[in-house]
UniProtKB/TrEMBL annotation, chain A:
Location within or outside the cell: Nucleus
SUPFAM superfamilies registered for this protein in UniProt: Histone-fold (SSF47113)
GO cellular component, one term: Fanconi anaemia nuclear complex
Transmembrane helix keyword on record: no
Taxon lineage: Eukaryota, Metazoa, Chordata, Craniata, Vertebrata
Protein name as it appears in the record: Centromere protein X
Organism, scientific name: Mola mola
Keywords: DNA damage, DNA repair, DNA-binding, Nucleus
Source organism superkingdom: Eukaryota
TrEMBL record, chain B:
Cellular component GO terms held in the UniProt record: FANCM-MHF complex
Family: Belongs to the TAF9 family. CENP-S/MHF1 subfamily.
Keywords: DNA damage, DNA repair, DNA-binding
Pfam families: CENP-S (PF15630)
Name by which UniProt lists this protein: Centromere protein S
Residue segments, region Disordered: 96-122
Length: 81, 122
């Protein structure tokens, strides 16, 4: 992974609030370290989606990454996570 | 109450959308290809829905371990499906542990509250 974009990622409280809003029970909490790790997971997920869609566009000789490229890589992406 | 909840959810989605946009921009710059707005929106939506699945899994894992707090151990289980990702997350987790040990060494004497520690790390 490139060094230069290492700092682009999700904020810890964003991830913490997002995950907490999806918990079924109110008493479930998320520890600080778990939130940081999940932020990393989501960053990898988003980056993987972007890189795979870009590769698909490349293989079809397109200058722009369009929705059909993302549609093609989506099923495998979801199976990998 | 539910209107309030809805608004928070929209704001969280917007935050995810913003970060996904920036990630797509860097990926695009590296390969001289731009991402359509539709793709960025779709990736953001997918990330939010995947978070829903992650959250439910994390909650179930924590409950299975008879805890009500989700810990890094649960996150490691969530990442189990892909070997590379699982190893990556385990390394990250160890890195965090080391960082915390270093912070504790530095802070002996003047104890900071946990909140300020976390803010300074971001």
């Amino acid at each position: 992974m490139a060094e230069s974009d290492a700092e682009i990622g999700f904020r810890k409280d964003t991830v913490s609030k997002l995950l907490s809003s999806f918990f079924k029970e109110d008493k479930t909490r998320l520890s600080g370290d778990a939130a940081l790790l999940m932020a990393e997971m989501l960053r990898v997920f988003a980056r993987e989606a972007a890189v795979r869609a870009q590769k698909q566009a490349e293989s079809e000789d397109c200058d722009r990454v369009d929705i059909e490229h993302f549609e093609k890589i989506l099923p495998q992406l979801l199976l990998d996570f | 109450m539910s209107v309030d909840k809805d608004e928070t959810h929209q704001r969280l989605k917007a935050a995810v959308h913003y970060t996904v946009g920036r990630i797509c921009q860097t990926v695009g710059e590296d390969h001289r290809r731009e991402f359509s707005r539709q793709v960025i929106a779709a990736i953001a939506e997918t990330a939010v829905r995947q978070s829903d699945i992650f959250a439910k899994d994390l909650e179930a894992f924590a409950r299975h371990a008879k805890r009500s707090t989700v810990t890094p151990e649960d996150v490691k289980l969530v990442a189990r499906r892909s070997t590379a990702l699982s190893i990556y997350i385990q390394n990250k987790s160890e890195e965090l542990n080391h960082e915390q040990r270093d912070l504790k060494k530095k802070n002996t004497g003047k104890r900071k509250s946990r909140d300020t520690d976390e803010e300074s790390r971001e």
